[in-house]
Structure prediction request, 229 residues.
Amino acid sequence: SQTIHQWPATLVQPVGSPLSLECTVEGTSNPNLYWYRQAAGRGLQLLFYSVGIGQISSEVPQNLSASRPQDRQFILSSKKLLLSDSGFYLCAWSVIKASGPGTDTQYFGPGTRLTVL
Amino acid sequence: AQKVTQAQTEISVVEKEDVTLDCVYETRDTTYYLFWYKQPPSGELVFLIRRNSFDEQNEISGRYSWNFQKSTSSFNFTITASQVVDSAVYFCALSELNDMRFGAGTRLTVKP
Prediction:
């Protein structure tokens, strides 16, 4: 069966510090991978998605970046965190379908709760 | 642009009551997919159901049922005989070819 891991589970960082959140998937090959952010009490905002190694699509311009160095590894980074980066970050995966990455069911990881002070 | 509206921000019921969570969507595509996810207090989103635009059959899974009506662009979710463990935020989502959008979510509280 497939499992998705995220770490760390919680993180408190000062403004201006760097960020690195990691997501890994087990039990599947060549998945689509996604990063979402959920601000407190709000819905999910898609930040990035990747259909393969080194292939990243950005949905929202911001001071965050994503990388996919390996097939089942997805990393969210920032060089300098802002207060507005606080939130709950969720990684998700889906099986690639020929019809496009948006049509398949996405399965989510446990999330990382980031607080920027 | 596609859009998902969950007009009910918060709902509170007493255990064993039935509750319906509303979801209304907007899309120009004829092929699309609708989803419901549950987010318990732990934070992880749990997949509940996926329905494509060509399948309007209602679905029942235990105490959960879904009513998809293209005529009103709605995909409503009903929990029968609610339980305290149903307390969570529920998200409706709409996906087209290369995009997936979530509603703002409905927070359901089931009181004992």
Chain B is about 0% helix and 55% strand. The mean pLDDT of chain B is 93. Chain B touches chain A through 22 residues (CB under 8 Å).
